[in-house]
Amino acid sequence: MTAALSMPTVLIVPGLRDHVDTHWQTFLAADLEARGRRVRTVPPMGRDDLDCAARVDAIERAANLISGPLVVVAHSGGTLMVAHWARRTRRPVQGALLATPPDFERPMPEGYPTVEALLDAGWLPVPRRTLPFRSIVAASRNDPLAAFDRVATLARDWGSELVDMGEVGHLNPASGYGPWPLAEYLIRDLSTPLAVAD
């Protein structure tokens, strides 16, 4: 068995968008698969249907089709989907990389859902309980969708390690990002079981 195949499967959870060829999650999936790593992606649902429960169900279906260890890699609204999913799933998760969570509890820029629409669709309140698995929150200092201190508080509430990425916008093509090499390093970290002290 190759080293790549012995690693946990990576489950990619996109945010509130359709498939984007130039998004870092798309590049990540292709790079990992090219090296023999098992990767699955929750189908993007776009912004037309905001139903949070339907998105949580989609994560549950995808996760339960994967055998063995699992590392979740979520971006933007996908990070909040994972927080909702974590409250109901029984599927063991080895770790989760949660990149640039948006602040759905405060008004976002034009073109994004309103707080009222998110409330109606079941996103609010944002889950604040400690996640039942190891997690890393990657936060931006100039994210137009969330202030850094708000994301840092969310990471603390989730029991997540916080990685300060500096000024990277929302870590999406609109912020000048295609590939995000740090993701693979963080995934490798999450893929290695933590040593248990005697």
Q: Tell me, what's the shape? A: globular
Using DSSP, what is the number of strands? 6
Question: How confident overall, as mean pLDDT?
Answer: 93
Helix count from the secondary structure assignment? 7
Please describe what this structure looks like:
With 198 residues, the chain is of the alpha/beta class. Helix content is 33%, strand content 15%. It has a 6-stranded parallel β-sheet with strand order 2-1-3-4-5-6, with helices on both faces. The model has no long low-confidence stretch (mean pLDDT 93).
Quick tags:
alpha/beta; 198 residues; six-stranded parallel beta sheet; globular
In summary, what is this structure?
The protein is α/β, with parallel strands linked by helices and 198 residues long. It contains seven helices and six strands, in the order H-E-H-E-H-E-H-E-H-E-H-E-H.
Topology:
Layout: H1 3-6, E1 9-13, H2 24-34, E2 39-41, H3 52-64, E3 70-75, H4 77-86, E4 95-99, H5 115-120, E5 134-139, H6 148-158, E6 161-164, H7 182-191
Parallel strand pairs: 1-2, 1-3, 3-4, 4-5, 5-6
Helix pairs in contact: 3-4
